Amino acid sequence: MFSPDSEVRHWPVVLASFLTVGLTFGLGSSLGVFYIEWFHEFPQSSALVGWLSSSVNAMLLLFSPIAGALIKYLGNRPVVIAGALISFTGLLIASSGREFYVLFMTIPFMTGIGCSMCYSGTMTIISDCFRKHFALAFGIAYSGGSFGIMTLPVVSGFLINHYGWRGALLIISAIQANILVCAKCMKPNPFGQTSTNLVDIGGKGYGSLEHQLSPEKAAPRDETEADGYSKASFSQNQSISTSIGDDRSKDDKLANNKNLLEKLVQFLDHAGLSLVWTNRVFASIIPLPILTSIGNSVTLLFLFARAESVGIPGLQAELLLSVVGVANIVGNLANGPLVDANVAELAFIYGVVEAVVSVSAIGIAILESYPFFVVYAVLFGFSSGIYIPLGGIMTANSPTLDKSPNEFKVN
After folding, report:
1. Which of 19, 67, 135, 163 sees the fewest Cβ atoms within 10 Å?
2. 93-100: long-range pairs with CB below 8 Å, 24+
3. Distances (CA, A) of 273 to 117, 319, 345, 389, 400
4. Nearest to 139 by CA among 3, 330, 5, 274
5. Where does the Major facilitator superfamily (MFS) profile domain start and stop, copy by copy (predicted)?
6. Over the stretch 384-394, which tens digit does the pLDDT of each residue have?
């Protein structure tokens, strides 16, 4: 029906990615609603409970280089399926946890890592399937996170009020399992970067047999030397044989260590992780989101609690996160036309919106009235809706980078 190079047939992938991002990034951004419940339930410090509330987003981004390497080796769909199962299992176990350490182990290290695998797979498959309309498709797919931020806090608050936080986590884990259905729609593009360049672990490379030391080169002694030593006394032969064995054992260990090092270099090279120290453009992009990540963490984690602390009712405080989500969707959808219009350099736009998001950590501490909270939520949501997908587009459009799954997750 469509030509092999037509992008129309890939739009179901955008829909599946939209839902997956909403259930992963949106989940991590809405766990702040559970902060007060966990703080009252467990005798832990507010800092530790706050870290738990933000741990999913932290692990989502921190684990993304490893998830990108897995995608390079295994493909998008298997990684997304595995991530969905891990995330679902983590929430399911956490819902029945009676001790804080259960949540400490499951939410960051199971749900967070699982969400990272799902999120990374969706971001990569968009770059595989779209070239001409990449900015638009990327913006639509990423707006799923905004949709999740808009809906999941309200849904979570409703579930907490009716079923408690354990029942809420149990139901959310069932919702999270729907990523498995989305993964079914993520059919790999045979003409994409990742699908056509899956790494063959047994292929030639830095760790192939061609680069290993041959037994002849590794042996420190030849037969002529052995014949010369055979003329010595029995005790001398015995000591020399021991010395030869020790030397040969040392050489074998050196060869094995070199082989392991070469295989590690091969893995880092094929996975794209070596770009961190081999490509100056990529290395310069990586530090940019650090300040904005601080602003994101403070806003999404403490906005609800801060609003309640100044006397704003619970439902209105939950709606602030929904306002962030709506503004984020508008920013995501405006991102594609803004890039295509070429009204300014992408780096300039990126710097402006990053500055707005970065100062958000200061703004949230001085707000007192609800209208100012709403204005703050709109500015933060719109700016973050532009800068996050814009970072991926800047990376994808860089002419000096060899595209790999890790390049689209620097944010």
Report:
1. 163
2. 94/169, 95/166, 95/167, 95/169, 95/170, 95/173, 96/166, 96/170, 100/42, 100/44
3. 16, 40, 27, 21, 15
4. 330
5. 10-411
6. 888 777 877 77
